[in-house]
Amino acid sequence: MFVIIGILVVMGAVVGGYLMEHGNLSVLFQPAELVIIFGASIGSLIIAAPPKVLSLILKSFGKLFSSGGMGKSGYLELLGLLYKIFSKIRKEGLISIEADIENPGSSPLFLEYRAVMSNHHAVSFLCDNLKVIISTNVPPYELDNLMELETDTHHHEALIPAHNIAMVADALPGLGIVAAVLGVVLTMGKINEPPEVLGQSIGAALVGTFLGVLMCYGFVGPIATNLEAKVKEDGVSFQIIRIALVAFVGGSAPQMAVEFGRRAIPTSDRPSFNELEETVRKK
Counting runs of H as helices and runs of E as strands, what totals does the chain give? Predict the structure, then answer.
């Protein structure tokens, strides 16, 4: 929703300011300039990005209109799930959760937490590392290194679309200049025409530079920044799971382990100690 509002604000400010100076909107509509700039930018992206990366970029556009992250209620659910898992392990042993983590989609333990189940990457990360804990007597520091490696790998892959879109944004002003230069070349062929014709031709050429700069700083660049922020927000759930699991394997009590996880949540979304304690009591 906010992305759409931002697009409307950019367009309103640019077009509104232009009209305030009695500009003619028809001058800005130059199909040839659009073909050159957008065609060349898409082509450069195809050259730079392998098919797998292009697929990731297309999938990432759906994230633009999502809120990003799990929010306070979602993080509370994740902490509640971790507490319930840790408590079950303490009471019944590690083997008691084996069936739950093998198929979390049909586990009553997991299905109780809908917000967590909607984040399949976090659920997979949690279950895989619980399997490691069950199958091997892994020391806390080795478990921490293992989860850090997976978190960094996932973070790097998730940032690929944002980085490639940022590359396109950086190229747009240059491609706008290319369109403008081609317009100037065409104008030079009309050097014997009246000033009115030359002025219109030069104005059309300069539209290329205008579009390239506007698309770079007004739309494509902000889209890349938005996607990067979403990736960082999605990584918070991984950090919570990692810190809580390491604390639990290191000997912390279930409630203390989830308190470690709570401290990994950014302050804007972090539930208070009392909110966590209330959630733990309910569970």
Answer: 14, 0
